[in-house]
């Protein structure tokens, strides 16, 4: 973090540290509970293989369905009221809904609470937008990468902690702990985050049509939205079924929760290792080159995942995938930051969040249906092909002359 905060005001450093910690806890809380939700659901009833895969997909998807629908409204409100308020809204409601999920007595209670959580969620995206507005452009690559590292670090620790707690105390305990931690995030954000924001009245706020007309490369921004959706879909097509796939690979023997936690965590470890280098590379070579490289490597890495015969092979290839993933979301966010006017950050990032949520819905449902109807291996094949199409789309529409995306040499 020191390389990112040097020579910037003390209030900026404090805000960065608190928001980084908030994103870390949010990422950790999500990964403490989500990789094991299918196993939690399995304890709440007697389900067939197809039903369990479908309900697991729905439990994942419901948060993102509501998020996709409501994000543009929150984005417009963020441009009027500021991103700090949006962070507080997300942390406060998530604390309540996640804690309540641990009290669930049936699968539909879990699905309903996840839907409500999605309506008010969005801490990481709003914290990222807040930092984008507070950071000089020549540091955007490093700061966007650092903010992503927060969630990734949490995602790395979460499955290991969640798997251990679930194995010792049951699947409800991680939800209770996550709810308490999100309340802590609410308190820290309320008291320690400083946002230099000038409120924009609804009457003076530029219409979205006018903002689109002012963008230097509208087509590129649209492609970044689609890329965000596909990246998230590629992640979520696997996440809902990781623990079930590990269970199959282990032939239903051994400490499945812990091993599933390790497998779920390995991409985060890879991303954490690569993220610092990726951030500096983006500031020198430009985010478009980094994004194309990351997509190409990620596409290739899905091929060997089809042929794994034990969970440790799967963990190895997912670790390498994490190295490639370090180049994906931060590169997209950096392109959006550099190519979007400051007074439209909230709405542009909210639309990006809607596409991200749509990708999560698409990925979790498609992954669950494919794994239930065909096989887990088929999920990796479809995901790899989707990333290949995205790589081609980004390459064709990349900007060659946009001054905002010119590398800093």
Automatic annotation (TrEMBL):
It holds the Pfam family MFS_1. The keyword Amino-acid biosynthesis does not apply. GO terms for cellular component: plasma membrane. GO terms for molecular function: transmembrane transporter activity. It comes from Limosilactobacillus equigenerosi DSM 18793 = JCM 14505. The keyword Transport applies. This is MFS family major facilitator transporter. It comes from the Bacteria. The chain crosses the membrane at residues 16-41, 53-74, 86-109, 145-169, 175-197, 218-238, 258-277, 289-309, 315-336, 376-396. It is a multi-pass membrane protein. It is found in: Cell membrane. Keywords: Cell membrane, Membrane, Transmembrane, Transmembrane helix, Transport. Gene3D superfamilies: MFS general substrate transporter like domains. Residues 15-402 form the Major facilitator superfamily (MFS) profile domain.
């Amino acid at each position: 973090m020191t390389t990112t905060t040097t020579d910037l005001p003390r209030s900026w450093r404090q805000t960065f540290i608190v928001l980084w910690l908030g994103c870390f806890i949010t990422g950790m809380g999500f990964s403490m509970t989500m990789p094991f939700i299918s196993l939690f659901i399995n304890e709440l009833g007697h389900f067939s293989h197809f039903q369990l895969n479908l309900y697991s997909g729905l439990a994942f998807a419901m948060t993102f369905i509501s998020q996709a629908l409501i994000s543009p409204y929150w984005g417009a409100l963020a441009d009027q009221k500021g991103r700090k308020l949006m962070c507080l809204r997300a942390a406060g409601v998530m604390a309540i809904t996640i804690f309540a999920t641990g009290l669930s007595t049936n699968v539909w209670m879990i699905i309903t609470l996840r839907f409500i959580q999605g309506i008010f969620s969005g801490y990481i995206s709003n914290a990222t937008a807040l930092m984008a507005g507070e950071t000089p452009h020549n540091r955007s690559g490093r700061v966007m990468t650092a903010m992503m590292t927060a969630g990734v670090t949490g995602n790395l620790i979460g499955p290991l902690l969640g798997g251990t707690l679930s194995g010792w105390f049951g699947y409800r305990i991680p939800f209770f702990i996550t709810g308490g931690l999100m309340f802590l995030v609410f308190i820290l954000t309320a008291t320690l985050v400083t946002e230099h924001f000038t409120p924009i009245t609804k009457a003076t706020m530029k219409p979205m049509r006018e903002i689109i007309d002012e963008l230097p490369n509208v087509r590129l921004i649209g492609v970044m939205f689609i890329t965000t959706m596909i990246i998230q879909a590629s992640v979520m097509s696997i996440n809902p079924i990781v623990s079930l796939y590990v269970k199959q690979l282990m032939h239903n023997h051994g400490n499945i929760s812990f091993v599933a936690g390790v497998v779920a965590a390995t991409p985060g470890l890879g991303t954490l290792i690569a993220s610092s280098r990726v951030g500096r590379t983006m500031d020198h070579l430009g985010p478009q080159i980094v994004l194309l490289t990351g997509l190409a490597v990620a596409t290739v890495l899905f091929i060997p995942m089809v042929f794994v015969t034990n969970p440790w092979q799967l963990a190895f290839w997912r670790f390498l995938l994490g190295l490639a993933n370090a180049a994906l979301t931060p590169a997209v966010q950096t392109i959006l930051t550099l190519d979007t006017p400051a007074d439209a950050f909230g709405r542009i990032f909210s639309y990006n969040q809607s596409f991200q949520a749509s990708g999560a819905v698409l990925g979790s449902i498609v992954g669950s249906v494919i794994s239930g109807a065909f096989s887990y291996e088929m999920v990796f094949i479809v995901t790899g092909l989707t990333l290949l199409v995205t790589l081609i789309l980004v390459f064709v529409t990349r900007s060659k002359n946009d001054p905002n995306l010119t590398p800093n040499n």
